[in-house]
UniProtKB/TrEMBL annotation:
Species the sequence originates in: Gossypium arboreum (Tree cotton)
Signal peptide: none
Xref: PANTHER family: ZINC FINGER BED DOMAIN-CONTAINING PROTEIN 4 (PTHR46481), ZINC FINGER BED DOMAIN-CONTAINING PROTEIN RICESLEEPER 2-LIKE (PTHR46481:SF7)
InterPro entries: hAT-like_transposase_RNase-H, RNaseH-like_sf, ZnF_BED_domain_contain
Pfam families per record: hAT-like_RNase-H (PF14372)
Organism placement in taxonomy: Eukaryota, Viridiplantae, Streptophyta, Embryophyta, Tracheophyta
Ranges for domain hAT-like transposase RNase-H fold: 256-359
Protein name: hAT-like transposase RNase-H fold domain-containing protein
Length: 384
């Protein structure tokens, strides 16, 4: 069985190599590192490209051990495996915001530029993972609302600690005639989306928790020894926070979908987040004001400085025929000051012209080849 599986792997590897060799498009990479419980470091490299039939392909090229999480080590491993696959035309490399990845990108620029494998000498190579930035923004905001979140996490953890408690809680739900069919779920503190799912479920069962307190004498006492019993204000904060986080949760689902190209949607999502954070700063709740300010500062750290942005996110939006440059012009003026919007539009136009000049010749050759192919097929058809 082992031999058969390995042979299948080798056969598929040959097919993918042939597909990559015959593809006219550049390859986009996503890569991340992970450490196992045995303290072994691993690196995953995934290629995204459009084949000659205009189909989007996603292929995991390698899942391999690496010596360390240092930037140069990551860069060397990526280069090694790309050469093994025969890939020398890169468009972007999407990574999270760890500083070691900055070093890895610099290493890849240095190695691939002499081979003319990058667009604009690697100017647009480094693509920061939008989902990871979203995670940083939301986690920053949750720090301010941590007390209310902890006060609700405590009851959820207590109920889920044993099947007997969970069954007793379900009986309380029936007595209170709560129609919600969801099941209490405990979050993972490092994943804000799981915190959202926990709050989204728990806020339906406030009355059931109060009923459960009457049936379990240890419930309230144990909570007060830890995070504390959730007050009316805590439940109000949790419901408001749940409504607020729902927007970020839905945006994350849209931008992390892998079945279609999402870069043309980035600008809409960034605009939505910016407007949401500005509106939240006007909330009458002081805690929400502070939370929104902290989140906006984190947002501006990545998307508030034009020089730090990868303009490909906006270029992709412009190239989408449904969203024209005038729309961007209007949206930028709505989002920010006139001077900042004007500067953004100037840089965006410069980037478009640079990309156009670089691809113009290749595009003409590509079209000419396709026309010749069609003419050849027509001639053969007429002969038949």
């Amino acid at each position: 069985m082992t031999r058969d599986v390995y042979q299948l792997y080798l056969d598929e590897r040959v097919k993918i190599k042939q597909l990559l060799r015959s593809s006219c498009s550049r390859v986009c990479l996503t890569t991340d590192t992970w450490t196992s419980l045995q303290r072994v470091n691993y690196l995953c490299i995934t290629a995204h490209f459009i084949d000659n039939d205009w189909k989007l392909n996603k292929k995991i090229l390698n899942f391999c051990p690496i010596s360390s999480h240092k930037g140069e080590s990551i860069g060397m491993v990526i280069e090694k495996y790309l050469l093994n696959w025969g890939i020398d035309k890169l468009f972007t490399v999407t990574v999270d915001n760890a500083s070691s990845n900055d070093v890895a990108i610099i290493y890849l620029r240095k190695k691939f530029n002499p081979r003319r494998g990058l667009v604009q000498n690697g100017k647009y190579l480094h693509m920061r993972c939008m989902t990871h930035i979203m995670n940083l923004i939301v986690v920053e905001g949750l720090k301010e609302m941590n007390k209310s979140v902890e006060s609700v996490r405590g009851p959820v953890r207590y109920v889920r600690q044993s099947p007997a408690r969970l069954q007793k809680f379900k009986e309380c739900v029936v007595v209170e005639k709560i129609e919600c069919k969801k099941i209490l779920c405990l979050d993972v503190c490092t994943r804000w989306n799981s915190t959202y799912l926990m709050l989204n479920t728990a806020q339906n069962f406030e009355r059931a928790f109060e009923r459960f307190e009457e049936r379990d004498t240890n419930f309230r006492a144990e909570l007060e020894r830890g995070e504390g019993w959730p007050s009316v204000d805590d439940w109000t904060n949790v419901r408001d926070l749940r409504d607020f986080l729902e927007h970020f949760y839905e945006v994350t689902l849209r931008i992390s979908d892998t079945s279609y190209v999402t870069s043309n949607n980035f600008f809409d999502e960034l605009s939505e987040i910016d407007i949401l954070l500005r509106d939240a700063q006007l909330n009458s709740n002081v805690d929400f004001n502070v939370m929104a300010i902290m989140m906006k500062e984190k947002y501006d750290k990545y998307w508030g400085d034009i020089d730090k942005m990868n303009l490909l996110m906006f270029v992709a939006c412009v190239l989408d025929p449904r969203q024209k440059l005038k729309y961007l012009e209007f949206a930028f003026s709505e989002m920010s000051s006139f001077e900042k919007a004007f500067e953004m539009m100037q840089k965006l136009k410069e980037s478009l012209y640079e990309l156009f000049d670089e691809y113009k010749f290749h595009f003409i050759v590509f079209v000419a080849n396709r026309v010749c192919q069609h003419m050849f097929l027509l001639v053969n058809h007429n002969k038949k």
